[in-house]
Amino acid sequence: MAEREVRSIACQMKAARFPADKDLSGFDFAASKINEASCADYTDVRSWRPQ
């Protein structure tokens, strides 16, 4: 990909103001009532598909 195209896409993404990416890597499950195992089930896209 040309450098100009990369800069253009980066500028467009910034202008779109999408929310920041978030993940569960820093979440403290020990300090919450949320069950880590059940939360992992929800984040696994394969579990959303019908059997």
Short structural description:
43% of the residues lie in helices and 0% in strands. It contains 2 helices and no strands.
Number of strands: 0
Q: What's the pLDDT, averaged over the residues?
A: 83
Sum up the overall morphology in one term: elongated
Low-confidence region ranges: none
Radius of gyration: 18 Å
Helical stretch tally: 2
Largest sheet properties: none
Q: Strand portion, in percent?
A: under 5%
Q: What structural category characterises the helix and strand content?
A: mainly alpha
The helix-strand sequence is HH
Characterization of the model:
- The chain has about 50 residues and is mainly α.
- It has a domain at about 20-50.
- The protein has two helices and no strands.
- The longest helix has 14 residues, at about 5-15.
- The radius of gyration is 18 Å and the shape is elongated.
- The mean pLDDT is about 85.
Annotation keywords:
51 residues; mainly alpha; elongated
